Amino acid sequence: MLADRIPAIQQALEEAGADAWLFACFQQNDPVSLDLLGLGDRLVTRRCYYLVPRQGGPKKLVHALEPAMLDHLPGEKASYLTWQEHRAAVAALVAGRRRLAAQYSPGNQLPSVSRLDAGTAELLREAGAELLSAADLVQRFAATWSEEQLAGHRRACTELHRIVLAAFDRAGAALRGRETLEEYALQQFILQAFEHAGLWSEAAPIVAVNAHSADPHYQPGSEGSDPIREGDFLLIDLWAKEKRPASVYADITWCGVCSGAPTARQAEVFAVVAAARDAAWELVASRYPRQPVHGFEVDDAARETIRAAGYGERFIHRTGHSIGTSDHGQGANMDNLETHDTRQLLPMTGFSIEPGVYLTGDFGVRSEINVALTPAAAETTGGEPQRELLRLLG
Question: Fewest Cβ atoms nearer than 10 Å: which of 215, 254, 349, 367?
């Protein structure tokens, strides 16, 4: 609970030179605030605010129609009813807090943090506040794992490695038995395996053959799914977490060929992607925890490897994403393409490394591993990274 972490937040505000951290909630506008304030399962139909100052007690501002919205949190409470009262109450809430941290990112550089709407930002500035990005605070207080979550992530990742190999075995058996097996049916096989393993996912896995594998976010449907045939290229991307409260995701991608051996082009592209994956991992492992490592640097390490091999324009997404209780978490992303993520990688956080090369209309390769950062070291979780394309026949 946030209430137990207020002293740590105040220490972080002191270190950051901020006067307060403001949380502003309305409907589903800010997953970070809703989660940290314990409002994730509540219907917030009126604007409410929670302010943690660098010194002193927290303050709450709620609407008169929802007066108990923040009663589970400590702090002095004020309320408003009319829009005129709202403007005055917001100004009073932040009075004297010149440097104000909020879920704001200059230029919307980090969209997962940039949740404060422009109108509220105007109100705060009119009240004399200078807005600071809460990006580092969010990572520290919304993206770090407990020891129990780390253990659950490790177990989930081990299960995903077992399930992905079982899925490729299922495809190979169908090929050898001349059985028609479509992408969608193999996706459902994986979902059944999740259920048997006690795992759950917010979205179904990706099962993609040939040109579909060159679409990083392809999803097979119950209608129009392609059959998996001899000679096809097959990519499987799966993510899931344990069915426990506050469990953390694992997320991996493997590739194979529905033949006795890959083509020369397939083998070449996989080797480039695997080398990029390893370059990103080696950067993290060689520097953490002795030296700071930033998200954009990890992306650069993978991207430069792919550029040097002549496939730079075919790597069309970031190298990796934060992992948390949602598959895409609130911490630093391994990104210098879609965003310039300057956040430092922190202990007790985790993320994916998943470079890819996508040859539109032909096939795409992605190789994804998970990295967990303990206070002592970086580790890859779940099992050995894929070293060569799986061969389903022969």
Answer: 215
Within 8 A by CB and 6+ apart from 224, the residues are none
What pTM, to 2 d.p., does this model score? 0.95
Write the Ramachandran bin of 120: left for phi over 0, alpha for psi from -120 to 50, otherwise beta: alpha
User: Which amino acid would we find at residue 213?
Assistant: S
Cα gap 194→188, rounded to integer Å: 10
Q: Which CATH class is domain 147-391?
A: alpha beta
How does DSSP assign 76-114, residue by residue? EEEEE-SHHHHHHHHHHHHTT--EEEES--GGG-STTT-
Can you point out the beta strands (E) in 118-272?
Answer: 130-133, 199-200, 206-209, 233-242, 250-257
Which CATH number is associated with domain 2-142? 3.40.350.10
Q: Print pLDDT tens along the chain (394 aa).
A: 688 999 999 999 999 999 999 999 999 999 999 999 999 889 999 999 999 999 999 999 999 999 999 999 999 999 999 999 999 999 999 999 999 999 999 999 999 999 999 999 999 999 999 999 999 999 999 999 999 999 999 999 999 999 999 999 999 999 999 999 999 999 999 999 999 999 999 999 999 999 999 999 999 999 989 999 999 999 999 999 999 999 999 999 999 999 999 999 999 999 999 999 999 999 999 999 999 999 999 999 999 999 999 999 999 999 999 999 999 999 999 999 999 999 999 999 999 999 999 999 999 999 999 999 999 999 999 999 999 999 999 8
Q: What angle do CA 204, 147, 193 make, to 5 degrees?
A: 25
Query: How many Å apart are CA 269 and CA 275, to the nearest integer?
Result: 10
Spacing of C-alpha 195 from chain mean position: 22
Dist CA 172 CA 165 (whole Å): 10
Find all residues with CB under 8 Å of 263, minimum gap 6, and list them: 257
- Do residues 113 and 210 lie in contact, with contact meaning Cβ atoms separated by under 8 Å? no
147-391 has the same fold as 2-142:
no
